[in-house]
Amino acid sequence: MGEPEHVLICVAWPYANGPLHLGHVAGCYLPPDIQLRFERALGNRVLLVSGSDEHGTPITVTAEQQGVSPQEIVDKYHSINKQALLDLGCAWEPNVDPRGIEYGGALFNRTSDPRHKQLVQENFVALLNSGMFEQKTMQQYYELKSGGGGRFLPDRYIEGTCPSCGFEAARGDQCDECGTTYETSELTNPRSKMNPDNDIEIRDTVHFFFRLDLFQKSLELHAEDNWPVWKNNVRSMTKNWLDMGLRPRAVTRDLDWGIELPLEGDEWSGKCVYVWFEAVQGYYTCARIWSTEYADGTHPDGENAWERWWKNPENGSQPRHLYFLGKDNIPFHTVIWPSLIMALNNTDNEISKDDDLRPGPGDLHLEDNVPAMEYLMLAGGQFSKSRKHAVWLPSFLERFDPDTLRYYLSINMPESHDTDFNWPDFVEKINNELIGTYGNFVHRVMTLAERLDEGKQNNPLQAYDDISKQGELIAKINQFHNDITTSLQRHRYKEALRSAMNIAQLGNQMLQEATPWKFLKTPTDANDEWYAGQQQSLGKLAFAWRISRCLSIVTQPFLPFSAQRLWSNLGESGNVSDSPWTDALDWESEMTWDGQSPTPLFTKLDLDEIISQETQLADDSTSHDNNDPTHGVKGGKKKENEKMTDAPEGTTYLKFDTFMEVEMRTGTITNVTDHPNADKLYVVSINDGTDEGRTVCAGLKPYYNIEDLINSSIVFVANLEPRKLRGVMSEGMLLAADDGEGNVRLITVSGEISNGSQVR
Ligand SMILES: [Zn+2]
Question: How many CB atoms lie within 10 A of CB 594?
Answer without folding.
Answer: 16
